[in-house]
Task: structure prediction
Amino acid sequence: AQSVTQLGSHVSVSEGALVLLRCNYSSSVPPYLFWYVQYPNQGLQLLLKYTTGATLVKGINGFEAEFKKSETSFHLTKPSAHMSDAAEYFCAVTKAGNNRKLIWGLGTSLAVNP
Amino acid sequence: NAGVTQTPKFQVLKTGQSMTLQCAQDMNHEYMSWYRQDPGMGLRLIHYSVGAGITDQGEVPNGYNVSRSTTEDFPLRLLSAAPSQTSVYFCASIGGGLGDTQYFGPGTRLTVL
Result:
């Protein structure tokens, strides 16, 4: 069965430090890949996605992610963390055979320390 | 565009009560979903709809009903609320293209006593 694994349910970084949130997936076919962000007491919003083409994808707020098929990974990075980046981040992949159904990771809570 | 709207924002129910969570979208999307979000369990799909008049079950459908009479609206009904249904509920709509974005509503925080 398909699955998405986000390594680390909680990640803490200092303001200005590199942000790295890890996502690995298992899928029998190349999926579409997504990162969503959820700020406190809000719904989820799309940060970035990979469908086809260039494997390095840039999103909003300075985030980017690279699709590595050989490693079945889609890690999210940001060179310099800002206090406003504190949020819950979810990785998701499309379900094989149904590109509108998503398989979700359990989320990573990012804390940014001053 | 308002996007996806949900009402109410908060609700407290007693065990056995029924209620309907409302969801509406103004993006003319065919595909809509209901999720519940619980700590440590991520998002779980309750029901979804691929268009007006067509609904199907997700991974946790028990205790919930849905209907889709219009493209815009996708209400979620709790038939007889149980404490296990205490959760945050999100409605989402999706465009028709490959790998399209899911647009989420702000959520309804439900507590069942």
